[in-house]
Design a protein that fits this description.
Blueprint: H1 8-16, H2 37-53, H3 57-61, H4 67-83
């Protein structure tokens, strides 16, 4: 869920399903709601990490047939990202 899907119905459905929406309201919203800025920042960092991991063609295309080989390369990619 992101700012494009921040309607009241979507938020209500997320709450009913037990999720905690951490999406800031649009700036033109008449009745904005409170959201956890720290959690939103962490969510954004995680989304950016997944985007960077998809930049590794081997992860994006999944050439490896064995799960252990694929997982090993994900670990390798995470180490490379941590060293940047």
């Amino acid at each position: 869920m992101d700012r494009a899907y921040e309607g009241d119905q979507t938020r209500q459905l997320a709450l009913e399903l037990g999720y905690i929406p951490v999406v800031p309201p649009k700036t033109n919203r008449l009745e904005p709601w409170e959201y956890d800025r720290a959690m939103y920042k962490k969510r954004n960092e995680i989304e950016r990490l997944f985007r960077r991991l998809k930049g590794f063609r081997r992860i994006f295309s999944r050439f490896d047939k064995l799960d252990i080989i694929f997982l090993s390369f994900i670990h390798f990619a995470l180490i490379v990202e941590a060293l940047r």
